[in-house]
Every structure is written in structure tokens, then in C-alpha cells.
Amino acid sequence: MWDYTEKVLDHFRHPRNVGRIEHPDGTGTVGSLACGDSLTLTFKLDADGRIADVKFQTFGCASAIASSSALTELIKGKTLAEAEKISNKHIADYLGGLPEQKMHCSVMGREALEVAIHNYRTGETMVKELEENIVCTCFGVSENEILRVIRENGLSSVDQVTNFCKAGGGCGGCRDKIEALVAQVKSERAALKTTAPEAPRKLTHIQKIRLIEEIIDREIRPALQKDQGDVELVDVEGDRVVIAFRGMCAGCQVSEFTRRDFIQAKLRECVAPEVVVVEEGKA
Amino acid sequence: MSPPLVYFDNNATTCVAPEVRDAMMPFFQELWGNPSSMHFFGGQVARHVEAAREKLAALIHADPAEIIFTSCGSESDNMAIYGAAETLGPSAKIITSRVEHPAVLGPCRHFREHGYKVIELPVDGVGQLDLAALREAVYGGPCLVSVMWANNETGVIFPMEEIARIVKSAGGILHTDAVQTVGKVPIDVRKLPVDMLALSGHKLHAPKGIGALYVRRGTRLKTYLIGGHQEHGRRGGTENVPYIVGLGVAAELAGAHMDEENTRVAKLRDRLEQGLLHGCPDTRVNGDIRNRLPNTSNMSFEFIEGESILEDLSDFGICASSGSACASGSLEPSHVLRAMGVPFTAVHGSIRFSLSRYNTDADVDCLLEHMPQVVARLRAMSPFVPMARTP
């Protein structure tokens, strides 16, 4: 039994905007019977280019129906440019969250919207399979779709990718490829992180605090914890960073070296060359 | 307030019979000794374990010495396949079917990874085993055949006599997963040359956590759970006394109610099935209805998806299960229905109703009252309902 939120159950039991609009401005269908769920979205625009009416028909489980219903509520009254910004996360958040294995239902909603808008603009019915590099042949999921769910939802494993877009959930033959895509996005993220300190002067105070915390978490704390020690960030006043030692570091004879030659050196390297690290109560 | 429970999911698990529960209680309260103990206090408990063994043996007409108590049906299947495959060695073939329970498919595939040749036999459109393929597979060297007696999803009963004849004439070892069969249809291992037979307590009104494996005298089986003298050294571990006693009583009750299962319960099932076929258009029954457990019906409701049907039925207190991908928690719909070649539309919209002797006419009435509106509500949302049928 799935643990659905009240909002999911409400949208499943009382779905909004069910049906199909006659002579719609845009139509989008995604999913298939073989996949176990399918969604057809139709919309009509008003004179100002806003979505005046939108309807859905869905074959699928309770969360697929609820996601479709939520999508229609989210985009009603929006311009297409605004509607395009809706991601699967917006749909899931609107419903108060979905079980992780059901996140693909929210992705199906976002995809149907994309296809419907494409249909309005070009008159074409988008057939992704023909245009893109298909990774998962069981469920017809392309490389771009996989990269998109990984990036938008911060995914870090193949199983998560399967939960979000089904890719890899059939024969499993493409799991290695998906793993490579996860690794690709991971290295993109890592590259972003390491380039971040290159522009330290642009940091606002709050950004600086976050960066210091991140560097402590990533670069400093693991090394201290190896020796059963630890460090805590107490305060940041301009360039002055106040810390407190914990565990074996507290009262350690060489904590002065740890402070200056390790923590301060690291923060000067990664945050700003002006940083001065002081121990709480000792400055 | 939640509606009263209407339970049609007895192939998943059954309620514990009150007689079973009552018989178990003393073994939690006063008779808690270890049956292996030398003192009077433990020793008296051993007699109850043996009495339960006799009752269970009687249900399938086995010798009590041929019954090994286990923790569940899955353990029984694992013990049989592991024990026989290890005894035969990697030159042996393991033959099974594509519609087995994961407790059988899992161990078979494990041995495939360890160099054994594993053959998964196909089934036809109504879920019957391809006997010609079995005949072909059993020849040429030692083999272990593990096929289920009745299918958990469709209730389809395999012709076990014919299967046994084929396997034994080729000198193979035959194990059958009879978890869904025991207690529902009569079984007589004196007349049927199966070597091993797995069963599970909670499918026949005993609690979860107890099962058994029948092992015909003389069958060579490598010990699976090593490290104890219990069960004549064939399964280590202190006996789960209260549950063994419970299974004994459940077996006795199953024997006593066997006729009812095959008359009253079968009639209830048929009324349920016919009522839904008439009450809901575009509905079909999956599986061989001439050779089927008396309590099971697997039906497909076209154009709609099983999990949403179950979710709607829950609102009326009705419990069943589905072969749809969503309901399984995986992305793959029922491997059983797919192996039968049931179209995707029908697999995703499949619902299994499985009854027990505790079901009543009122239960069936409740389902027949609510199901048509559930199906109509979901179809009104479905993109697959043909245009001509939409109002």
C-alpha cells in the first residue's frame, strides 16, 4: 500500500479538469499502455495567450491521475512561457510529495505539457523517440530526458532515475548507460563547486557563511573525525571566522596548528585570502 | 468510520482461524519448554510438535517423518531447490516454468549464475504448462524439475499427475510449490510421485511464519540450514512450537472443510465472476477456468489500471490484488499474465479476487454493488476508452 498524501488522494478521488477539449490549441500525449500509464492533455488559450481551459485523460495509478489533475490546476490561467517553467518537482510539491517510486508520474505530467506546447507552436505531434538518443528501449526514455530528471531533482543513483522516469526498470540492459549519465551530472556538479571559489569577492555575507560551512563539511571535518575530533562553526564576522573544537580536538596539544595551518589555510584557499580563523573564547 | 472489511485477497494471506489461535496460546503461556530438552517440562512439548506433524502429514497423506517444518513457503522452496541442486551437482539441469513464484524463480536463477543449465518452460494462453516442452527438457542427464501445482495469480492448476509421470519416467527429481494448493484441493502423495512439496501456513488460516516441506523418504537433499539436530538434522533451529501446533490445527481444519471449499466457496467465486462479467462491460477472465482453484478469479478490466481500481475499492473496505506494474511496486506488470500472452491493456487492468471459507454472500453482494461504479468512474478518465463508447 502506497503512503499517499491527503492531497494526492483528494485529486485522485475528485480529479479536476477531466476530459478532452474539442478543437484544442494544443494536444500532448505521453506514455503508453505498455508502460502502464498514459496521459493526454488538451488546452485552449484566451485572447491574452493565457491557458483558459485545460483538460486531461489519464490511464494509470492513483498518483498518475492525481499528478495529471494537479498539473491542470497549476497551469490554468498561466501564459505558455510561465507554464513551461513548471517542473515535475512543482507537481510533486503541489501534491505534498509523492512516494519516490511514483515520481515518474509527476515527470509524465511535465512531459505531456511540453508535448502539448510544442504541438501548439509547430502543429507537430512531438515524437521524441525519433529525434533523440534512446537509452532505455523498454520504456522509450531518451538520454536528454534522463539527464533532465537527474539535474532537476538532484538524483545520484540508477534506482532513483528508474523511480523518476522508469528508465532501467525493464530488462535492466541500460543500467550501465544510466550510471554513466549519473556520473556525468555528478562531475558537472563537482566542476561547478570547484569553480565557485574562483570568484570569492562577489560573495554576499550569507553566501560566504554557506561556503564556509560547505568547506568545513567537505574538506575539514572528515579529516578531524578520522582522529575522533570535530569542529563547529560558531560565527562569521566579516573576515573573522569563529570556531569551536569538539571531541579529541578540544584540548588537543596541537589544536593551535590545526586552527592555523589546516583550517585557516583551507578557508583562505577556498573562501577568501583575508580570512582569519579564531577559536571561540580565545581571541 | 471505516466500512467493514470485505476480504478477497486470501491468496496473499488468510485470517488465522480462531481454533488455530486458541490452540497456540498455551504454548506462549505455560508450555514454553524446548522440545529437545531432556527434562519433563520440555519433553512434553515435543509430543505436541509430533502431533502437529501427524495432522499435517494426514492432510496430504504423507508419512509424518516426511514432513520438515520451516519458517515459510519461500524457505521450503529454497530448501528444496538448493538441497536437490547441490546434491545433483552443476552438471544437472534445473527445469522450472515462467509463471513460478519468485521463491522458486529466484533460487533457480541463482543456480544459473553458478553454471547450472536452467530451463524455464513456457505456458499457453490460459496459463497451462507446455507439456511437450517438459518432455523434451527432462531427457539427457540428471535434472531437478520445480513447477508449481497451482498458480497464485490465476489459480490455474497444472496437471501434476501427468507432470510427475513425465519427470519420473526420465529419472528426474520433482519438487512442487503447492503453497496455493494445500488445503484448497485434495492432495495424496501416496498416489502422486512428487519428491518434494512446499506449503505455507498463512495461506490456510495458520499464522505467518510457519511452513513445511514434504520430502519423500529416500530423496537425497543437502541440508540447507546447518547446525542443529532438529527435524532429524534436516533443518537446524529450535522448533517454532506455537506455530507448528497452529499449522497442525489449520491442516486438520482444512481437511474438514475441503468439501466446503470446493462447493460453497467455488459457488461464491463463480457468482462473483459472473456478476462482474455482467455488471462491467469489456471485462475478461484470465486463465484456464476448467482447471482452476475453487477460490481464485483473475479478471481484467479493460482501459483502466489495477492500482487505481484497488485504491477505489479500498474506500468500500474491499481488498483484492492486481497484476499491474504500479500495484507490484516494480515497473513490470505480472510476469504470469505476460507469460500467458495476455495483452498489456488487460494485464495492467487485472484484478485477482481470492476467497476463503470465511467469505459470505454479503461480501460478494458488496463487491457487485460497488465495482461497476468504480470501473465507470475510472473509465470516464481513461484516454483508451474507444470514442464510440464515450457518452
Task: Describe the protein's architecture and organization.
The complex is a heterodimer of chains A (283) and B (391). With 283 residues, chain A is of the alpha+beta class. Chain A has three domains: 126 residues, Alpha-Beta Complex (Sufe protein. Chain: A), CATH 3.90.1010; 70 residues, BFD-like [2Fe-2S]-binding domain (Arc Repressor Mutant, subunit A, Orthogonal Bundle), CATH 1.10.10.1100; 80 residues, Fe-S cluster assembly (FSCA) (GMP Synthetase, Chain A, domain 3, 2-Layer Sandwich). Chain A is 47% helix and 18% strand. Chain A has a three-stranded antiparallel sheet with strand order 1-2-3. Chain A has a three-stranded mixed sheet with strand order 6-7-8, covered by helices on one side. Chain A has a two-stranded antiparallel sheet with strand order 4-5. In chain A, helix 2 packs across helix 5 and helix 5 crosses helix 8. The N and C termini of chain A lie far apart (58 Å). The mean pLDDT of chain A is 87. Chain B is α/β, with parallel strands linked by helices and 391 residues long. Chain B folds into two domains: 142 residues, Aspartate Aminotransferase, domain 1; 239 residues, Aspartate Aminotransferase, domain 2 (3-Layer(aba) Sandwich). The two termini of chain B are 35 Å apart. The mean pLDDT of chain B is 94. Chains A and B meet through helix 1, strand 2, strand 3 and helix 2 of A and helix 10, helix 11 and helix 13 of B.
